[in-house]
Each structure stands twice: as C-alpha cells, then as structure tokens.
Amino acid sequence: MTRTPAPWGTLRMEPYAATTTTPQYTPVIDPGTQIAVIVDEQGRTVELGSHGTSTSGLTPTTTSPGDGAGPGVATDADSTESYDQDQSSG
C-alpha cells in the first residue's frame, strides 16, 4: 500500500508568533470645533503626532483657433501644476 505524502506547505507550518493587545482608539468629531479627534477606551483624547496636509493639482490649458480658421490649424496645449502645503508643527 502506497502512502500519500503530506502537502509541502504543511511541513513548513509553525505556531503563530506571540501577539500583544493594542489599545482601541476611536475617531470622533469634536462638537465644538468640528475637527476629528482620537479617543482611547476611557474617552481621553490621544495625540497621534503632528502632521500637515497638502493639495496638489494639474490644471490643463488649451488654446484653439478661433472661428474662420482654416483646416489644419494647430492647437496648443500645456498644463500648470500647483502644490500647496500647510505648515506642520513639530
């Protein structure tokens, strides 16, 4: 009688590494400022570090020939990039 070998992946399996419990944080909206804040399990505000925000955009611009232009008249296109970053403390 022939014995079927175990799948190769099962030979490599090990127990999961030890884990730790992480505290639960919940985002909420501060009713006074309408800004999101993070609170812990006891309802205390948690500071997650400072960070800034930024926006960036690519604005295409195009020029076309006016009325009455003959066939084959070229159009011109380019784009302008804008980048704005808030000041971040820290």
From TrEMBL:
Residues 48-66 have a biased composition (Low complexity). This is Putative ATP-grasp-modified RiPP. Residues 46-90 are annotated as: Disordered. It comes from the Bacteria. InterPro entries: Actino_peptide, GRASP_targ. Pfam families: Actino_peptide (PF14408).
